[in-house]
## 1
Amino acid sequence: MNKLFRLPFVFFLFSLPFVNAFSFSATITTPVALAFVAFFTLVSFERFVFDRQMSSVFGIFLFSITISSCLNMVAFQSSTPLNHLISFIICYVLFFTMPLNYLKHNRGYALNLLFKIIAIGVLLSSIVAICEFLVTNFFKMSFDYFPRPAAYDYDYEPLSIGGMIRARGFAEESGHFALYLISMYFLTLQYMKDNYGKVIVLTYSVLVFIALLASFSVSGLMFAFLSLSITYMIYNFNSPLKMIFILIFFFIFMLSVEMLIQYLTGFSILFDVVLSKLSGSTSMSDRSLKFTTVLSFMSDSDGVLIHLFGLGPAFYDTYGLPTLVTLYPLLYVQFGIVGLGVYLALISYPLFYAKLQGIKIDKYLFCSYLFSIFFFLGISNYWFPWFWVILAVIVSKIKLEKKIRYKISI
């Protein structure tokens, strides 16, 4: 592995938490800039290879969204639709294919290096988020130490239900921080357990859990529990008693934490945050109203092509409609049934491929993937690098397992 490429890639991995803080602008974030550097270094010194199966599916997706763009091109008001198309290409090439190329050169060493650097980022982000929460809520001091270009554009203030200031680490919003924190925590958990003692792993996990609570992210809490439950059901299907005990223990633990926080602060995460938001908060109502407005516009439009290929990228700019902040409805409105279907095939293909090959994905890696899939029910930020890196790790591990089996068979 060429050291000239390894160093930019290491910097890229270190930059993963900084999708907003320390960025050059709302568009040119630190991970994007460093991914470009790592990419150009790679193509200069190594052979850059696209994964054949994944790239075939992505090519179909790119073709479908190009059709969507052409069908709506007459109504385009600016270059925003083109920027959206480029964004998908950047995500696939820089955040998925570039890490995959690095991992294929020395998979065992490269994967451990990746996990180690990401774990350091998760630990640093957790500590910063906990400090942020304590400083802003108990010492009543500002914690505005990091330049945040995207947040400045609309004067975002991370208030939660109840008036507490939510921690957001290095991300733009608390929900985005929760996606990073838990997805990357699950991604690195098996590595931590394999390489460090129980005390270090427990400390690591406790800090992440406290940081998640400090973010007051309903999606983070709910989808973490859901993804853990489903993962344990799948991986302990032949041991139902063990699965039941684990779920009961987890439920008792969460209930104990809820009671302790309520006793110390008088603030209930379950009632003041989770149930309040799920039963019709301003955020939930706003999202439902926007989606209903857009669906009504699509229903009033003539032609089946609207439903097959959507209103095109950046439809809100083209047709003066409200934007959507959840990924799957957004993809349906932009690219129709075809585009959404192919995108779902793209992100789920590694799992089906592993199943066909008889390869079992590590449970914590699967949990990381599952959590991210669920979380996109709450946000639309597919352009964050975290999920694409998870996909790269999954594909890399599948190929490593196939290589090992091939050598054994010989």
## 2
Amino acid sequence: MDGMLVIISGPSGSGKGTVVKRLGPQLGYAVSISVTTRKPREGEVHARDYFFITEEEFVRMRSENALLEHFAYVNNYYGTPRFYVDEQIAKGKIVVLEIEVTGALQVKEKFPEAVLVFLMPPTLTELQHRLVSRATEDAVTIEARLKRALEEIPLIDRYDYLVINDKIDEAVDNVNAIVVAERLRPHRNQAVVRDFAGSQVKMEYYQL
């Protein structure tokens, strides 16, 4: 069965990271690994956490259209390498890319077959509660994240699916269900169709 690319987006606090970590390995998931020009932090491993590359290598990949999307953050560059996605899909894997909306739409332009899933809490109040409960950011940052969440709402129509993350188990089940359904689409199973159409059988007639 052919592999595919699944992109999961949503506001900070929507639970994207938790959902991605809990997706069923039995379905053949492979979490996308980004390239970055920043130095590895303690405990990080090349080709597991990131592909750590030089700025010159990043510029070359960008010029050769080898990145599905890219952005700069705190004087470092990040991007999604096409080679890794293509390699995993060729193995029949479900490549999961957790990324913000702008990057997701960039990838969709270059990779039209990608399946876009938008994850969000049931209400803005719940999103605020989750951000406050994390106790990792000040009030100004939380307000900015809530404002950004509202700015993303009009872009949901450009996604293929919307999953409400009220209960984490149900959200994970829904994403898994989306993947199962997408893998059953005929255009993702052309090898099976060709094998069926090209096979020959010996017709036997029975006397009734």
## 3
Amino acid sequence: MSIERTPEPGRNSAGQAGQGTPVQRTEDFHAALGRSRVAGIAFFVELAFLVGLVAFLDHRVRLRILIQERSAIQVFRIVLFLAGAASILLGRFVKGRILARARKAPDRQAKLGLLNQAALSSLAASVVPATIGFVLYLLAGQTRDFYMLAFVSLLLLFFYFPRPAAWEAILADRTPSCPL
């Protein structure tokens, strides 16, 4: 009997060096993409829950509106809309910085981790306008504003939902043809 060190099943010498076999690389890719997509679906469910909650509260429960003065409502609306716009811009900035780090990452695992982080941060920032609209609804009873901000969040979630083609392009050090 020989006591030679043989590679584990499913691995080769390149796999021991951190490269992985093509099967393992696609499994890692699909696992990371799958985690990001599950998070994206969770954000869609959160948005649907908020819409359902506002619809229920608007039709079944009479809210005691905290802000009664029209001028105070207008100032509060402007401040919250600006906060929503700032959150979108901040999310785009953070995502751009993470993607720049992903392009310079030394190995595939680091790139996948940073792509996952970019997807999660942009998806989380996408729900902020709907949350701000919900707060505006609770404070001032503005259903129209909530639905408008919820629609903006829905569009952002569709724009930022993780796409395999964009991830593959970044992993191959190419510029993605579709926005990430």
